[in-house]
Design goal:
The protein is mainly α. The chain has helices at 3-7, 10-38, 47-70, 74-96, 104-123, 129-134.
Length: 144
């Protein structure tokens, strides 16, 4: 698969972005605990590192937007958007410290987004341009 063909696969981009976001979230505590042990100031992550969360949110928004245009499953389309909204709310809550929510919920939302993109890529793609243009449910999926 060439690198250009990946650009035309929003589910590939979405699952990759979700996976990278998850790795970013998992790595953050380890990176900054190590840094805190070597320095006596600033136990929090720098602003630029925290901004990566929002870069992943923006990438995943456009990946979901495009994925829902080429998906044959209305349920998957809805699940992608609902999961993205939950993920966005959890990331926003983490940044603003509105209420305490265990970060494992954000991990679950990120993993769910990645799996939904992979499922959509494998089972819910339009087989012709007419399908995508008319948004018909002609694919053979479990979740139509």
């Amino acid at each position: 698969m060439s690198s250009l063909s990946i650009l035309y696969k929003p589910d590939t981009i979405g699952s990759l972005a979700s996976t990278l976001c998850l790795l970013h979230c998992i790595a953050t505590p380890f990176i900054f605990i190590t840094q805190a042990c070597t320095m006596s100031c600033c136990a929090d992550a720098p602003i630029w590192w925290q901004a990566i969360d929002y870069i992943f949110i923006v990438i995943s928004f456009f990946a979901i937007y495009r994925s829902t245009q080429t998906s044959t499953s209305k349920i998957i389309k809805n699940l992608l958007w609902i999961t993205w909204l939950i993920f966005f709310a959890l990331i926003l809550n983490k940044s603003l410290d509105l209420i305490y929510i265990n970060k494992n919920f954000a991990y679950c939302a990120g993993i769910s987004l990645a799996f939904l993109h992979l499922y959509n890529l494998r089972f819910c793609q339009c087989e012709s341009d007419d399908c995508c243009a008319n948004n018909k449910n002609t694919g053979k999926t479990i979740l139509n």
